[in-house]
Structures are given as C-alpha cells and as structure tokens.
Design a protein that fits this description.
single chain, alpha/beta, Rossmann fold, 2 domains, 32% helix, membrane, ATP hydrolysis activity, translocase, ABC_transporter_ATP-binding, ABC_transporter-like_CS
C-alpha cells in the first residue's frame, strides 16, 4: 500500500521555483528521509504533502486522500513536527502537551507518558518559554506524536539536540516505525539518514536528484576506496602493491587510493602489512556532495 504519492509537484515564490516537478512515493510502514542543502525545497515539499500549502501544479495523495484543501479526515491520522514551532509560552510543558492531546481526545495520562518518553518529566512544571532549545524541540516532537498517528512528518527533528537526546530520539522513532507507522523526516545529518531510513531522497534546487536506499546510493557513487596503513612501511614498497593508485603519507599513516580494494588488501597481506589497516569506502555524505556540490549555501 502507498502512504504518500506525489506526482510532478510544483510551487513557486515569485521567480523562485521552490519545488520544481517533484515526484516520489512512500509505502506504508516505510521510513523515508529527505536530504538537501539549505534552500533545496525540502520544507516546502513537506508543507505541500502535509496540506499546509496549495501546490501550483501536480498532485498529492496522502493515505488515499488529497491533503489540500485542509482535509479534516486526515488531520487525526497525521503527526507533524514543524521546523519552527510556536507554543503558549506561559503554559508549562505538561500543560502544553495536554492541550495538544485534548485536541485529539487523548487522555491527560497518555499525554504525561509522552513527557517521560522524550525525557521531560523533570521539566513538566517548567514554562515553555523557559525551556532550552533542545528541550523545546523534544516537546515539539511529543506534541506531534501524542495522538499515535499513522503517518509522521518530522522537519529536522534532532536539530539542537545533544548526542544523548539525539540517540534516544532515534530509538523512539525506530520503535514507532517498527510498530507499523510511516515516518518521513528531513535532516542535515547523513549518519541519521543512513541509520534510520529505508530510502533517502536527495533534493537540490527544488528537484529530487536521487531516491533510493542509502546502500544503493553509495554503491552507485563512482568513488575510490581509501585504505590507511599504519606508519612505518616505505612508500616505494606500498606503491608497487598491485591495484594501488595514489599513495599519500599523513601523520596517522599512509593512505592508499584504489578501485580494486580486494587486490590491494591481498597484496598487503602477502607483504605482512595488514596490522592497523583501515578501509574507508564511500558514504552517504560523499553521495550528497557529489550530487549537490561543495559551495556554501545561504
């Protein structure tokens, strides 16, 4: 079953084509990530799918229905965490979450359970305006999930989170997904996308450049393997190893570049040079930079 179907979606702000012919589909129970530089169109695409904006052209189907104009049948089935959330600043964290829960007829007790799940029990009586950025982010995620939606949209959910909170949120999202929920998130963290996502869409300038599993995206990258050998061996001895391309000495060891890693590792083993060897293949970050470039974005 298809949870989200997007066909040739477009949205412009004046002369800027924020979303320029995006097509993608998300299966029920799938975990999908959307990656891209600042201004790539990630958030605008999510807002169109969520029904927060009207597309200029193209079609969107969410759980079998159109999200625009605002569809009241879809609202209780979706959970949305926006990139920037607005709260009632004089309410406490508990009051804020219970207010969101009441909109969906969720009991106060279940709302309080979510404070524990996002690690905010000790801040339950703290006014929202006094929460740190990371704490407010966790509260925003709890508000998006408190009614147990079928489909969850998260826009950079781990921004401003410390490493512990980030990993705990990963565990929470994996559990939600394994329970059958469909999850779509945007992120700037490549390791997050590789760890969590079944498939990843890489966007730039309003278009989807690639959409596949992280493993297939990396395998499709035409990038050499880097093999680091511990300091010690003579460089000329390494250059004659079959399959070796460039040889570069660094303070941490000698880096061998190759497109035939098996051949090189076999040659190193024959020369008894495998101690401390490290093999670095392509990563999702390499794919991202190859597709979108390295220049600074506003």
């Amino acid at each position: 079953m298809v949870a989200i179907e997007v066909v040739d979606l477009a949205l412009a702000y004046g002369e800027l084509r924020a979303v320029d012919g995006v097509s993608l589909d998300v299966a029920e129970g799938e975990f999908v990530g959307i990656l891209g530089p600042n201004g790539a169109g990630k958030t605008s695409t999510l807002e169109l799918v969520e029904g927060l904006r009207r597309p200029d052209s193209g079609t969107v189907r969410v759980l079998g229905e159109s999200p625009w104009p605002r569809n009241p049948r879809l609202l209780p089935r979706m959970g949305v965490q926006l990139q920037a959330s607005s709260f009632f600043e004089r309410l406490t964290a508990r009051e804020q979450l219970r207010t969101f829960a009441s909109l969906y007829a969720v009991s106060a007790g279940r709302a309080d359970e979510w404070l524990e799940r996002v690690g905010l029990v000790e801040k339950a009586a703290t006014r929202v305006g006094d929460l740190s950025g990371g704490q407010a982010q966790r509260l925003s995620i709890a508000c998006a999930l408190v009614h147990d939606p079928e489909l969850v949209f998260l826009d950079e959910p781990t921004a401003a989170l410390d490493p512990q909170a980030r990993r705990n949120l990963w565990d929470l999202l994996v559990g939600i997904n394994e329970a059958g929920r469909t999850v779509v998130l945007t992120t700037h963290y490549m390791d997050e996308a590789e760890t969590l996502c079944d498939r990843v869409a890489i966007m730039d300038r309003g278009r989807v450049l690639r959409f596949d599993t992280p493993a297939k995206l990396v395998r499709g990258l035409d990038a050499p393997t880097r093999i680091t050998v511990a300091p010690g061996p003579d460089l000329e001895r390494l250059r004659v190893v079959p399959g070796v391309g460039d040889v570069v000495a660094t303070p941490d060891g000698t880096v061998l570049t190759t497109r035939e890693p098996t051949l090189v590792l076999t040659g190193l083993a024959e020369r008894d040079l495998l101690d401390g060897v490290q093999v670095h293949t392509g990563t999702l970050e390499d794919v991202f930079l190859d597709l979108t470039g390295r220049e600074y974005r506003a």
